[in-house]
Amino acid sequence: MAELEQLECLIESKSSRTVNGWKRFTFGALAAYLAVTGVMDFMSEGFSQKTVINAFLCVCGLLVLKFEKKIYASPLGFVKDTHTWFSHHRELLPWSEVRHVTLVTKGTGLTAFIEKDVIGWKLLFERNDMAALDGLFKKYAPKVKVVIKELGQR
């Protein structure tokens, strides 16, 4: 399988998801436990429903170990890279296709609604990323209107 070309990450979204640290250890340990108990059940009882369930859950635990979704801004536009054991997928929203941007702040969070035609992307950032995002839009998409809204605290 061909590896995707690395793009420069200008700013990473909080919408990115990666299984690492304790999550990776937990899913790995769970998969190992299910594999061992599944083999023990198979050797003592033969092929049973419990063995099939253990095998299925073990495979699910192993698949989760390699799931990574990184969402970031690059010089080409906004990028969603998804990596699993079997696939590497990239979705790109080029700067030239961005029609409107709304930045909504609430507390320490910042939500960016990046619209292209009728649909768009909703990305999460930190509030202190607003200046960097605004700078990126001015540099790469200067004709795009950026609206900033502040939501009150509850």
What's the gist of this structure?
This protein is 33% helix and 35% strand.
Description:
By secondary structure, the protein is of the alpha+beta class. The protein has helices spanning 22-45, 49-64, 130-140, and strands at 11-12, 17-18, 68-74, 77-83, 88-94, 100-106, 109-116, 119-126, 145-150. Helix content is 33%, strand content 35%. Strands 1, 2, 3, 4 and 5 form a 5-stranded antiparallel sheet that branches. A hairpin with a 2-residue loop joins β6 and β7. α1 (22-45) runs antiparallel to α2. The protein is elongated, with a radius of gyration of 21 Å. The protein starts with 10 loop residues before the first strand and ends with a strand.
Shape: elongated
Topology pattern, helix = H, strand = E: EEHHEEEEEEHE
Low-confidence stretches: none
Biggest sheet record? 5 strands, antiparallel
Structural class: alpha+beta
Q: What value does the average pLDDT take?
A: 88
User: Would you count the extended β strands for me?
Assistant: 9
The whole-angstrom Rg is: 21 Å
The first-to-last residue Cα distance is 49 Å
